[in-house]
Amino acid sequence: MNPSNIEIAAAILFAVALLHTFSAKLFEGLAHRSPRHAGLLHLLGEVEIVFGFWAAVLIVVMATMVGGEPAVAYAESRQYTEPLFVFVVMVVAASRPVLESMRRSVGAVARALPLPTRLAQVWLSLSLVPLLGSLITEPAAMTLAALMLLRTLFETTLPERLKYAALGVLFVNISVGGTLSSFAAPPVLMVAATWQWDSAFMLTHFGWRSATAVLVNATVLCWFLRAHLREPVQAEHSEPVPLLVSLIHFGFLAGVVLFAHHPVIFLGLFLFFLGYTQAYGAHQSPLILKEGLLVGFFLAGLVVLGGMQQWWLQPIISGLSPLALFFGATALTAITDNAALTYLGSLISGISDEAKYMLVAGAVAGGGLTVIANAPNPAGVSLLKGGFRDGSIGAGGLLLGAALPTVVAMVLFLL
């Protein structure tokens, strides 16, 4: 089927958005050298606004080509549950009672390990927390891991190349660490109902492979970081959060995760959560509303732009053998959201069981290569970019940092 003019225009804008994403750090550098236009350049350097901006351009182009009503109808036809959920779960997971409880738990385990405490904390944040994503969902795990690593690793004098290596391990481990269940990883969720993959199936076919990849990646990285993580991080002194307040926050988090596919319910819970944090402000820190909204904007833009790419993506997926599909999915994930990729695969009739496995395995293995490869990645970028030069994360640095962890995941999924 030949693509329409609108689909061709959408593919061009999608390519421009990709180029903009990969060059975002360049704009940040220009902003420091051109104070007169620093505001505009900083805006263009914000990775989180890229896809939302170009999605708006697409709607304007559609309105020009076919009229305003069809353009608005297309925008309203898209499914925005995932962007809304990521926004809500980021804010709730990053709240002080949840974050401090996780820090205390990780700290207690770290002190019990025969390792320097700070090194053990980093190892647990890169291994245990990503695996916890199979229970609390990947976006929540990314938020917690990023905030715990921010102080112990990224806001330090660690060489930039090692920060990118750590970022790559974090993104890959989050992508594969959520595959021990059928509801936590977006690319798995897209196919679970259609292919009847329950959590028992995921644990049997992906579980030990994913867990091994996460542990190997975290361990190898910490081996190279060991000389830089000898000194403990200065602890912050603050009033402890009462146990009841922490339990209530975890209750909100559990409710949001439980109703992750029902935006009316989890948005209602979020409004109650906002009211509760205002009522008991003494036990709170500022909520990351801005960061969460920017990430939601990024993902919503990806939904709008990605919805017009089926005409060229699906023929590629359907025309590959299972092994070629594995490598193709890993590569394609770097330039499109892995959940969109597996969703397109679920529409292919008669796809073999081997091809199903290879598609999902390739999609999750490549989920750390770029900021758009996996839905939680923009959250990690938003929370951690301040620890990098110019306050921005370069696409090339992330790609290099994620390359080796991706290969480890690929090897294990092919065993």
Structure in words:
With 415 residues, the protein is an all-alpha fold. It folds into 2 domains: 5-78, no CATH class; 82-229 and 238-414, no CATH class. Helices cover 74% and strands 0% of the residues. The chain has 21 helices and no strands. The chain has helices at 5-22, 24-33, 38-44, 47-66, 68-77, 81-93, 96-112, 117-136, 138-154, 160-177, 186-195, 199-225, 243-258, 263-279, 289-306, 310-318, 322-333, 338-346, 353-365, 377-384, 395-414. Helix 6 (81-93) runs parallel beside helix 14 (263-279).
| Form type | globular
Distance between the termini: 37 Å
| Mean of pLDDT | 92
Number of helices: 21
Order of helices and strands: HHHHHHHHHHHHHHHHHHHHH
From the alpha carbons, calculate the radius of gyration and give it in angstroms. 21 Å
Q: Low-confidence stretches at least 5 residues in length (pLDDT < 50)?
A: none
| DSSP E strands, number | 0
Structural domain tally? 2
| Biggest sheet record | none
| Residue fraction in strands | under 5%
Helix/strand/pairing category: mainly alpha
Q: Percent range for helical residues?
A: over 70%
